[in-house]
Write a structure and sequence with these properties.
Blueprint (H helix, E strand, L loop, with lengths): L3 H20 L2 H64 L2 H83 L12 H23 L2 H32 L4 H4 L2 H5 L10 H7 L1
Helix pairs in contact: 2-3, 3-4
């Protein structure tokens, strides 16, 4: 059976955390999430650097061990040659000494070769670990870049939400309707919160526009638009009148001005011939 005190303490802590998350500033939460991701990336990079450093160190040890094997092999061969030469020269004592030296070099060579094999196995493992570490760092770097880009997007959405909330608040104030924004705790949840706030603000604005005050504003705007349209027509008519110059009569077509009664009096036959 669970301890009631422990259960109550956990409940209080959860309630306290939820209240903190509810009152937290989304900008601060976004920045905290980015900083946490940056710290994780830095720690991962340090671990990867340690793995790669271990691989490089094994490479250096393996190189030295190979040099040691080559050196011991050369010494063993030289001791065998000297033992053979002493044997041919009849110097049995030196031949025995050189033979013993050759055997000692050969024993060291066996140990060194075994060390080379062990280092090769460790080096192969370190190569795989280093490759995995590099890949992990690259993937985490891409994820960090995506989070930074997401931060910019979220901040932009947050500003849009705040702007829409101000517009909605202005409309709701006409009907004495108030609403309070909410906050959410994490980077992933901030996105949902901002979108929810933005959608709620749009809905509230739509409701406010459908209210009596909203209809009054629409009527006022329609009246202003009609008055503006009428005023624009007056301006155009005035501009057409002002566009005629003082000598406009001289520049106008001559036929209507010269004979305004032309349509009432048909021309005579002689006049028609003269005009032609």
């Amino acid at each position: 059976m669970a301890n009631p005190f422990v259960k109550g303490w956990k409940y209080l802590m959860a309630l306290f955390n939820s209240k903190i998350d509810e009152k937290a500033d989304p900008k601060v939460q976004i920045q905290q999430a980015i900083e946490d991701a940056q710290r994780q990336h830095q720690a991962l990079s340090q671990q990867a650097a340690s793995v790669i450093g271990n691989q490089r160190q094994l490479e250096m040890k393996l190189s030295r061990q190979l040099d040691e094997v080559e050196k011991l092999n050369a010494n063993a061969r030289q001791a065998v040659n000297l033992a053979d030469q002493a044997q041919v020269a009849g110097d049995t004592e030196k031949a025995i000494q050189y033979t013993n030296a050759a055997e000692a070099f050969a024993a060291q060579l066996v140990t060194a070769e075994q060390g080379v094999e062990d280092l090769k196995a460790l080096h192969d493992q370190s190569l795989q670990a280093a490759a995995q570490a590099k890949k992990a760092v690259e993937q985490n770097a891409m994820a960090l870049q995506a989070k930074v880009a997401e931060r910019t997007k979220l901040l932009s959405q947050l500003e849009q939400a705040k702007m829409q909330e101000r517009v909605s608040e202005s409309l709701r104030s006409m009907d004495s309707t108030l609403s309070a924004p909410g906050n959410t705790p994490s980077l992933d949840a901030v996105r949902d919160k901002i979108e929810r706030r933005y959608a709620d603000a749009l809905g509230s604005a739509e409701l406010a526009q459908n209210s009596v005050s909203g209809r009054m504003m629409e009527v006022q705007q329609a009246s202003i638009q009609m008055a503006g349209h009428s005023r624009l027509e007056q301006i155009r008519a005035s501009m057409k009148g002002d566009a005629l110059p003082s000598g406009g009569a001289a520049n106008a077509p001559a036929t209507p001005a010269a004979n305004p009664n032309l349509d009432k009096q048909p021309p005579a036959a002689g006049q028609t011939g003269t005009a032609q």
